[in-house]
Every structure is written in C-alpha cells, then in structure tokens.
Design goal:
The chain is α/β, with parallel strands linked by helices. The protein has eight helices and 16 strands. It folds into two domains: 8-36 and 266-362, no CATH class; 39-247, TIM Barrel. The strands form four sheets. The protein has a six-stranded antiparallel beta sheet with strand order 9-10-15-12-13-16, with no helix packed on it. Helix 6 runs parallel beside helix 7.
C-alpha cells in the first residue's frame, strides 16, 4: 500500500507552526497526527451487511475515504448458499479498495460454551490477516465485541484471547456515536468531526446499515439492513468529512492506524542526530514498542539548511523526495532506530500525469493509510 506525501500547502503550514530562527539542521519533532493534520476521524461500519458493499464502499471510494468494517466471516451475510456476490465482495473486491477489516467475531451468535471462544475470536482474526495482508503474521487487528448475544466466558478469559491474537478494542458504541441509534442528522454527526478538530483529538461515527433505494439503482429488496441510515444523510456526512479532510483538518483513517500512531507518538520516541553538515544529515528515531506490531510511519518535521530547495530522505528501503519550506521538511519515518539519511535534492519536474511539487517516493511499509491506492 502506498503512502502519499504532504501537499505543499500543508507542508507550509507545518513550517509556519514549527520552524524557528534558532532551529539547527537536524532538529526534529513528531507531528501530533499523520501529515500534521489537526485531528483524526474514524468511520466504522458494523455487521458486514449487504448495504456495505452495495452502497457504503462505493461512496467512500468516490470521496477517497477510508473506513473500518467490522465483519463476521462465518455469518450468513458474508457467505450465501445461493448467491456468490457477498463472499466475492468481502473476500476479493473490498480488500483491494484500501478499506480495513475489524474482528466482530466469527458468526455474531455469541459464545454459548467456552470451547467456542477460540473459534469465535481467533478464526476471524486469521481470516482478516490473510485477506488484508496475504499472510497470518502477528498484526494488530481492531476488535468489536458483538452485542445482544450470549457471552459465556469471563472478562478475564476474553482479555486473554484478545491479547493472544493482538486484538485492540475499538472505541465504545453509545448514543453519542451510533448512527440512527443515537445521532440521526448531518449536523449531529459532523459535530463529532468538529469536536475532534477543536480538541485536536480523535472522534468517530459507528454505522450499521445504509438505506437502499431502488429508484437509484440499488437492489429493490423488501427489507433494509439493521438501523439503516438515510442515504441522503449518509452522503451528506461523507461530503462534510471529505471537505474537512481536503482542507487539512482531518486525518480520516482506520482504527488500527489511529491506534498505532497515537501509541507510537505517546511512546515519546527519541531523536538522535548522528551527523549534521551542509551536505548531509543523519539521524535516528527510536521508540520502545514492539516494532513488528507498531509499524506505522510517524510524520516527522526536520530542520535542514536554508539553502536546500528540497531533500532526499532515505530510511531502509524507503526513499522520498520532499520540498523544503523555510528550512523545514516533512516526511514519514519509522521509530525503529533505523538510520534516516537526508541530503539536498530537487523536486521532480511536473509531467502530464503528476501534479507539481507533490514529491516522489518509493517503498513504504505495508500499512493502511487515509489515501486509497489503485
């Protein structure tokens, strides 16, 4: 999965906020949120219902938005004996759009006996890793405990299984964050995004179904998915979120990416400048978390000599060319202690298929971002 560089306007905002006349080349800091966005907003969709692939994913893709889908790979909404469409969508189509799956248990029928616990919690985790990443290596996956079903294991037993499978609890479902269940209008839902921006924090919206309309070409079924959100309200919320993202206020991402970034940032990784000349900077960024699980690049702002028009940043197999704005560059780096080398460079000349001054980069770790890839 590819990561995009900061747009020039956003990089300039970073420079205005962070650069000072006394900053020495190599002085660095981690942005509060990815791409130095003001806040983060999470869109979450629960129960792997048909309207997710019929309506939700296409509308998200139109607006270049990412969301987390809490799925039940063993449920009858995932696989239908007479219709291959749901399974094909969940297993082959949606993973290619950049959306991210979370674990909502295997069947959403609960745990009636402790012997079912490993299957209900562990098996969907393995399926999700295979679909999202093509392997079953240990990775963090978002967890959403199913409601209104029997759960006959103790909280301690549940916690042990979540730890075993590297599952991270999503933010809670309540009337303040649940579409239809609680919030019902566009202003109510966008107020969550504006709250996140005002507080420079994180907010979220949890949706179950979205209304199907046969008049718009949707399947003309006689029923709607559970707690189906009015389609006009849904599209209005997405438009409002996309607008706030476009102006640089919101990082719209999945739950695990937000969790990783916050944990890595709050772990207070240490910068060490190994070399500082007018032709080269070399530094490290080192945190103490498990780098196999916490593998999301952080957004870093580093001061460079004022004469540099741009910089080439290399860390391991990652290489990017980024603009220098008032002696400051902004780029992505892993807090794993691997050396970061920065040398002067020039931005690539604009071509017919590339926008000017957006930078160029290659090879980043395969983690979800807030930008869709083809």
């Amino acid at each position: 999965m590819k990561f995009k560089l900061l747009a020039p306007a956003l990089a300039f905002a970073c420079a205005t906020a962070a650069a000072t006349a006394t900053a020495a080349p190599g002085d660095s800091q981690v942005a509060r949120w990815k791409d130095n966005r003001t806040a983060v907003f999470l869109l979450m969709f629960s129960d792997s219902v048909p309207s997710h692939y019929q309506i939700v994913v296409p509308e998200l893709v139109k607006r270049d938005l990412i969301a987390t889908f809490y799925v039940n790979p063993g449920g009858n909404k995932w696989s239908h004996s007479k219709d291959p469409t749901p399974r094909n969508q969940w297993e082959n189509v949606i993973p290619k759009t950049g959306m991210v799956y979370g674990n909502h248990s295997m069947t959403h029928t609960g745990i009636k006996d402790p012997s079912q616990a490993e299957y209900e919690i562990g098996e969907p985790t393995r399926i999700i890793r295979k679909l999202m990443y093509g392997d079953d290596k240990p990775r963090l996956v978002s967890w959403n405990m199913p409601g209104a079903v029997p759960w006959k294991i103790t909280p301690e037993e549940t916690a042990a299984l979540l730890k075993k499978h590297n599952l991270i609890d999503k933010p809670k479902f309540d009337a303040k964050h649940g579409a239809v269940f609680g919030v019902k209008t566009i202003p109510e839902m966008l107020a969550l995004a504006d709250k996140a921006i005002a507080e420079k924090g994180m907010e979220y919206l949890i949706v179950h179904g979205v209304e199907r309309r046969a008049s718009e070409g949707d399947p003309g079924w006689s029923w709607q998915d559970y707690w189906a959100l009015n389609k006009d309200v849904f599209r209005g919320v997405l438009d409002g979120v996309a607008e706030r993202k476009a102006r640089g206020d919101l990082w719209v991402t999945d739950h695990i990416s937000q969790h990783k970034y916050a944990k890595e940032r709050d772990n207070k990784p240490v910068f060490q400048v190994l070399k500082s000349t007018d032709r080269e900077l070399r530094l490290t960024l080192t945190g103490t978390l498990d780098h196999a699980l916490y593998d999301l690049p952080l957004t870093v702002m580093t001061s460079v000599p004022a004469t540099w028009p741009a910089a080439i940043v290399t860390q391991g197999t990652f290489r990017s060319t980024v603009p220098a704005v008032k002696g400051l560059i902004t780029y992505d780096a892993l807090p794993n202690g691997e050396p970061i080398t920065v040398v002067p460079g020039r931005m690539p000349s604009p071509t017919s298929d590339k926008k000017p001054n957006t930078g160029a980069q290659t090879t980043l770790p395969p983690t979800p971002s807030d930008s869709l890839t083809s």
